[in-house]
Amino acid sequence: MEAFDLLQPYRIAEETFVIPWALEAPPVGHFPMNSMVIRGAEPVLVDTGAPAVRAQWLEAAWSVVDPLDVRWIFLTHDDRDHAGNLLAALAACPNATLLTTWFSIGRMAEEWETPINRCRFLTDGDTIDVGDRTLVAKRPPLYDNPTTRALFDPKTAVLWSVDTFATNVPAPMPDAGALSADDFRDGQLFGGRLVSPWVALLDSQKFRTVVDDFERLDAEVIAGCHAPVLRRPRIAEAYDLLRRLPEVPPWREFTQADLDQWMATAETSIPPEQPRPSAT
């Protein structure tokens, strides 16, 4: 694996790169906040990163591909960690078409006006020819937004799983293989229930059918916004854990009592203010 730094793109397959970022999330470690670039005959941005690091994200993306060459921007859904730099990306990529949905455009209208003349709707099961490959849009088993679609590239067998397989990590890392078995298991069960708390309401057998259908894409590499890259054998393990989610008790949310305890701990750990030198 190449050197790993946040907002430094790294290659996960032929002509396919993840742009990594992460948020510190006390007390559970960090949460990845990634996006992806497919640098093929007709380059594709897959999500557009978070606005908190807009300048750095744009610089990272353009280090992989010339914005004038970008032909497609695939927006998985309109949440800020996925669509945060959409307008900046559209402005920098005048030759790009936005792959989105009718509902996403409406949801974004509360903040900005998406240029509808530059849009193409790509819903669950649709495909798009991007020159040297045909990409497949697919609704993933877990999601936190009704417009969500994953993206599969059969040419490289890379699957962008969006928020499915979300996990906390002890420190930012490029590949889930670096996690211990316990951290991987606990993270998958925690992240899934955090992203999609409604999974506890599902019929287990019906959910398994959905998961099985997603697994049949037969991805060799799975990247996502909120997880390090998954490769075999971790992919099979991740699907097995995913199937278990409807039977796992709901995650207990942090409460005000937890916040009070954290604040009290923080106050006792802050060093006393040092006396300032007198003015001369």
UniProtKB/TrEMBL annotation:
Residues 32-226 form the Metallo-beta-lactamase domain. InterPro entries: Metallo-B-lactamas, RibonucZ/Hydroxyglut_hydro. Pfam families: Lactamase_B (PF00753). It comes from the Bacteria. This is Flavodoxin. Gene3D superfamilies: Ribonuclease Z/Hydroxyacylglutathione hydrolase-like (3.60.15.10).
